[in-house]
Amino acid sequence: MRLNEREMVSLIRRKLGSVSSLGTTIIGPGDDAAAIDIGSGMALVLSTDTIVENVHFKSDWVSAYLLGYKSFLAAVSDIYAMGARPNTSLCSLGLPTSRTTRAFIDELFDGLVKAGAELGVETVGGNISRSRELFISTSVTGFANADTIAQRSGAKVGDSIYVTGRLGGAAVATHCLLNGRFCESDIKDAHHVLFARCASEEMGLEHPIATRLLKELFMPTLRAQESLALSEQNFCTSMIDISDGIGSDLQAICDESKVGASIDVTALPLFEGAEVLEMPGESGLLNPLIQGGEDFELLFTVNRGDESRLRDFFHKKGFCEITRIGRITGAVEGMRFVDASGSGVSGIDGFDHFAEIGEDLGV
Amino acid sequence: MRLNEREMVSLIRRKLGSVSSLGTTIIGPGDDAAAIDIGSGMALVLSTDTIVENVHFKSDWVSAYLLGYKSFLAAVSDIYAMGARPNTSLCSLGLPTSRTTRAFIDELFDGLVKAGAELGVETVGGNISRSRELFISTSVTGFANADTIAQRSGAKVGDSIYVTGRLGGAAVATHCLLNGRFCESDIKDAHHVLFARCASEEMGLEHPIATRLLKELFMPTLRAQESLALSEQNFCTSMIDISDGIGSDLQAICDESKVGASIDVTALPLFEGAEVLEMPGESGLLNPLIQGGEDFELLFTVNRGDESRLRDFFHKKGFCEITRIGRITGAVEGMRFVDASGSGVSGIDGFDHFAEIGEDLGV
Q: Most buried one in A67, A256, B124, B207, CB count within 10 A?
């Protein structure tokens, strides 16, 4: 019997549940990261993320530098999603013999070390194996106050649902790459600019759309300060990073919190430039916006009574934009996508992404 | 320019070294595991290990159950090699679509959870990706007293070199599997017996050689209590687990400690049953004994003045056998293999295992 994604996760979690009495685990399988009590009110937070060639990326899309950079970011994002401060990482590399060149390893680790330096995370060890396809498995640890860790399970009926930043840029970039919508020189230019950004040259709006979209895919901005504030200031009742897409990630919050959700699709903040992708049908860009992840924005829920305090705090601190996109409902209502008038929107589907580029699944 | 194993590790360690000022790292890349100061004299110890199909195992050799069990053990072994107590793990799985069956995942996690329960280590999270070849990347954390962590770098000229248990069983088992020396029913019987062992039926000497060898390969005994005693009682000046083979692992101690070593090959304790493999030439079983790893015994160095205290302690506690196999020499002497009379032994070669079954390399 072949299992789909949800059935696999459910089976594995049941299995792992059977040893949970052994340790001093605060949070086990089922969240962005696990958390272990280490005394003095502090928790060790830990998570792992893997990218696989031809599943999460194609090697002609991305330089070794950006691969190292992006794989590192994606793994650290899960630690921020708990409202924790990341500190160390381990890198386990599966390397085809053809990639054992000095240039490849040099570039890959330049990207990885650069991302680590920007985020204050040190790679303290790792492992290399030969493999037929390239994969990078990154485990990250961090620390948090045990009583302010943000979990997926805390959303309450009536809470508002928020996202940071803008969505869909990475999904549209992936779509354009998959469908040959970027020409080779666009990709080359983008990599050149992104590499230059690392030499502290900031990238502005004047750059071509292709570059802005590819930056969103390969060098997304993690919401570090924002995530820490959301947890430490007790703003959020639940939080997750949008790595799999709002549809899938909000479903995870609903599952863990045993609630439903209503999303106003007209409120979803679209990445500037995403409209370059013209999608047929009534739902247009909604599917890439809702199913596409990889922007690594935060999705979180807030008690209505805390909303003005939240907005004031973010404004005062000069944090990124946040947008209210819906509200938490009762579990029986499930997850619904509605327009501004509250009517259901059709043509939005599919969360089982164990069959396409971008599949990946936290246990 | 294509790099060999040592060149890759050296390049990566130079790269990673450049951010080492960021954290509170006690031990960075280059040991069995890294260690981070977490206050109160305690260190968080962390390590990662990956097994890849057709590199570390072939799927017709091993059941999903033993795969889960062995991959878990191999990862935890690195934590014991630091003299630390393992507590949690993360499992990152690369899964071909053909393996997404309930039976496969069920068995794999049964093995993994069984190993975890035996060792007191809880799997607190993980990740699944699709991949063409199966891989399992396991990250493990543990705790140790910051001032008694056993490192590779502490060996001093004149120290005695010891190993726990007996060596070569796993290497001979691998050799027999690779060369069709076990018939299918031997392998089936062995898996049956090993599975039964998990239901608390202890395996004795009366079992056929094939079963004993395959147990050594797939369910080796980790030296948990012994490793903790070696570090906490300050017996060892350096320690490593024998995962790559004595040749490679002792070389790592020599490199990190900036010393040489002289090994008396006649003192090497051969696994009972390993002699079933008749090897041609003067060196006979020496190459599998020295190059083959996977027994997960401990290799450690001891100040001569501490040897009798060490032997008494191990005897009193009923710990496993330990054998003195040589001594640490000056760096200029390099690593030498000698016979009981001190004459060099020829015909022993090769540590760059990035080209054969069993390749794997800690950073």
A: B124
Say whether B126 and A12 touch across the interface (CB within 8 A). Answer: yes
Cα separation, A142 vs A43, in Å, equals 8
Structure tokens at B108: 């794999």
Closest A-chain CA to B51: A129
Query: Could you give the 3-state DSSP secondary structure of residue A255?
Result: helix
What letter does residue A357 receive in the DSSP assignment? T
Asked if A143 and A84 touch (Cβ cutoff 8 Å), the reply is yes
- A325 assigned to some structural domain: yes
In degrees and rounded to multiples of 5, residue B31 shows phi and psi of -120, -175
CB contacts, 8 Å: A2 with chain B:
97, 100-102
Both B46 and B116 in a single domain? yes
B-contacting residues in A 334-363 (Cβ below 8 Å): 354, 359-363
Measured distance CA(B230)–CA(B235) in Å, rounded? 5
pLDDT along chain B (363 residues), means of 10: 72 63 70 87 92 88 91 96 95 90 89 92 90 95 92 96 94 85 77 65 62 89 96 96 92 95 94 79 76 90 97 97 97 92 77 43 48
Residues on chain B touching A52 (C-beta within 8 angstroms): 94, 129-131
Name the DSSP class of A30. Answer: T
User: Considering the domain boundaries, does residue B347 fall inside one?
Assistant: no
- Other CB atoms within 10 A of residue A22 CB: 15
**Is B212 found in the same domain as B231?**
no
Chain B 81-120, CB below 8 Å of chain A: which residues?
Answer: 87-88, 90-92, 94, 97, 100-103, 105-106, 109-110, 112-113, 116-117, 120
**Residue A269 phi, psi dihedral angles, 5° rounding:** -80, 105
Contacts of B116 (CB under 8 A, 6+ apart): A19, A22, B72, B89, B122, B123
Q: How far off is chain B from A5, nearest CA to CA, in Å? A: 9
Query: Do B122 and B27 belong to one domain?
Result: yes
Domain that holds residue B323: 152-175+221-338
Cα Rg of chain A (Å, integer): 20
Give the one of B19, B38, B361 whose C-beta lies nearest to A128's C-beta.
Answer: B361
- Does residue B214 sit in the same domain as residue B226? no
CA dihedral B212, B213, B215, B216 (to 10 degrees): 120
Record the pTM: 0.88
Q: Which residues, 6+ apart, have CB-to-CB distance to B46 below 8 Å?
A: A88, A90, A124, A125, A139, A141, B33, B34, B35, B36, B139, B140, B141, B142
Minimal C-alpha gap between B89 and chain A (Å): 9
- Same-domain pairing of B231 and B299: yes
- And the tokens for B52? 């890849």
The answer to whether residue B344 is domain-embedded is: no
Window A:136-175, CB contacts with B under 8 Å: 137, 139, 141
Whole-angstrom distance, CA of residue B79 vs CA of residue A286: 47
Q: How far apart are CA A255 and CA A30, in angstroms?
A: 10
Q: Is some CB atom of chain B closer than 8 A to the CB atom of A316?
A: no
B302: tokens are: 């001891």
ipTM of this complex: 0.85
β pairing state of A260-264 and A361-362: unpaired
Phi, psi values for residue A300, rounded to 5°: -150, 160
Count other C-beta atoms under 10 Å from residue A269's C-beta: 17
Concatenate the DSSP letters of all residues of B176-190 into one string.
Answer: HHHTT-S-HHHHHHH
CA A207 to chain centre: 24
Domain count, chain B: 3
pLDDT tens digits, residue range A170-185? 988 888 888 887 777 7
